[in-house]
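Progress against Task 2.4 (sequence-to-structure conversion) is shown through the following example record, which the project officer requested during the mid-term review.
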Amino acid sequence: MKRESIFLLCTCLSFTPLMSLNVAQKARGTTEAVRAASTTTGTTTTTTNSTGPRGTGTIDTKISGSHVASTTYAASTAGKSIKLTEAVAFSGTSGSAINVTESNVTIDLDGRTISYGGASSGIHGITVAPGVKNTTIKNGTISGFTGSGIYAVGTSGSKIQNLTIKNILITNCSNGMTLDYIVYADIRDCINYANTTSSGAIHGIKLANSLCATVTSCTANYNTTLSGSAYGFYFSANQNCFLTDCEGSLNSGTAETSGFYITGCSAHNRIHNCRSYANICSAASCNGFLIESCSKLFIEESSSTYNQPGSGNYSYGFKLASSSQIIVEGNTADRNTYGFYDNENGGSFTNIFTSNTARQNSTSDYLRPNGVALNSLQISAKFLRQGHAISPLDNISIRTP
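Structure tokens generated for the chain above:
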């Protein structure tokens, strides 16, 4: 293995604890550094400190509702810590309520809500500019925006680095989180719920073109489009990313809809202990987990139940499309049209299915192209325990007697 590859792997594996340590150190440093008196002007309270991270001054700002009424608040000072003192109702006609353009910025909603009640399209809650490093967004609700609740989009030449989003509820927006070209991210304990759009695709959390990101204990449920595809989680062209303990359920669209849509991903992405159920598509197929044009992906200990397609279409618990070197292990697919479906191209199959359980999927529990069944042991439900005991490496197909 090349030295650069070893370094990248080690860096990715150590990212989350290091980020937590850095945030904690920064918080302690900020507390210790506060020495100057506070001055209050209008609705903004500013405290200026003589020292701060990386040798810069630290400005801690408390924002009330009228301060961000119609004009985007620009977090444009490096090392700034921003806290809401009351709910913010943004009414601007462009941009976002808060725009982060400098590095080392923390936005603490402090349990409060940023909302939008205007009619202009494409208005985001919080945006993070390309090239920004060390941004934290935490502890509150973002509601009613006609763009994304959080929009952090870098470029191939100017990626966003070290992004932390935690304890955020995004609801009633056109999309939840849109994250693109991120290097190192920690997204955890977030809820993307009941976001809605009248046309086009919708997603709860979209992560694309990113490296070494973890999404932990997040939900993306009840996201609905009246004309297009609906996705709870949309992962595209990521590398070394980890999705764990998440749920994408009850999302609804008119085109192909998925609780989890993973496409174009390579280089050791992993899905662990995730759940998808009752996603609905009125006019096309519907999937719990759709894995498309991917390689080197590990899916384990996840479940997909009762996804509902449009008339004349099919639902899939786990559908692999044009993907290779995928390991599917220890998962459950229950009451879909197809439980586990793999249409891997070519005569030799590289995708591995082992120790999965499929129950009462209406057409087939396990299927590859041309009606080729995956290796499985079919048993009656009452013999499930014995089936696993005598054949621990087989996939189990449970049918009623």
